[in-house]
Amino acid sequence: MLVHQFAEYAIRERTSQLPPEVIHHAKRAVIDWYAAFLPGSLVAPATLLEQAFADDLDHGNARLASGRRATLRAAALINGAASHSVEFDDIYRDAGYHPGSPVISAALAAAQAHGATGEQFLRSVIVGYEVSTRIGEAIMPSHYRYWHTTGTVGSFGAAAAVATILGCDRVQFAHALATVGTFASGLQQAFRSQAMTKPLHSGHAADVGAMAAMAAAKGVTGASDILEGEVGFGAAMSVNPDWKKAVRGLGADYNITRMTFKNHGCCGHTFAPIDGVLHLQKTHGLNWRDVKRVRIATYKAGTDIVDNPAPEGDYQAKFSLQYVVAHALVHGSVRLSAFAPERLKDPDVRAVLAKVEVVADPELSQGYPNQRAAHVEIETGDGRKLAHFQPTRKGDPDMPLNDDELNGKFLELALPVIGDKIARQLLAELWSLEKSQGVDFDFTSRERARAAG
User: Of 5, 156, 186, 211, whose CB neighbour count within 10 A is largest?
Assistant: First the structure.
């Protein structure tokens, strides 16, 4: 059974001699998680979840971004939603999956609740990433037709991470995965409105993963063939899943070293087109006023989600290829400010948006999910026709953000929330996590207000 193979791997990983490269990339993942988590903690749904689950707050040893104490599961839920809210969290490209939000949210809550060291926390993150990314690869691309991989596969990653922190034995670890499989959920219909449900998928995954691991640690059992069983996860939510991918290279070849860290604050399906239009603009000194027509050809799994020429509100704008391409041409980037109320109403952006055509390219569609590419064409008012093929995305493993760029992203997103001094102190602590005796990073509301004000 697959859950038993994952359990064998996880037990070995607690004391394995991890390559320095793997530890380094795990720290990069945690830093990137904080970069998305901190601004996400200030907006809905996280702010509303704090109200909804008030009975689970102000006690327990896990923490929210504000420093407010919480029970393990409440922190996993709220922080999981927060870290997926501003669309700046990491991606495992080959599974179409954001592992950081469910895995790190659950792992951090468990580590804080149980006084784990920084090294134990990092090992739990690595286990959660390796288990869940492989399950994701096995069920893709058919899974992505209806399901949100972060909500589904993320549940397994969260369960694996928390089971590692709790010190579950082989049998308990296997039952944590076996149990959580029946709670894995998240429908793509949630993407296609101004609803807050999509970030809740990540929070739910972190929560049910924690629940399954906590229950398994006390003896609760699950169906060991939940993944590959006749009416199990794979059969119900995929077409011909390739379970060989789920264990290939496990414990030797680490997927956590091949993460995508977002360079734009919106849906990852829009990134290759954004990179492409910015390349043409820079190369040809193009002014947005010169643009007569923009044609974007990219993969169908992306256009199914982000082809939206009339976005309403900030959330839909993050999933509108037309909007983010227009914003990039007018303002030169797509950061958090792109979705401020004044930008959403910007007449210049709206004028360019109306000139953007989006089509699905059959050849590029075949390359999904392993390649995320786009053909970009811009026609100008003076008759020029400019074209560029963007084969990948800035931030992908083959065009990664380096450590300095990742630090810059962290500071850009963290400083407005916790202030310069605390942000830089936190960043330094995260880069030395493997030496830390704990992960109870306390930047309380009072400290945050003083630092920011």
Answer: 156
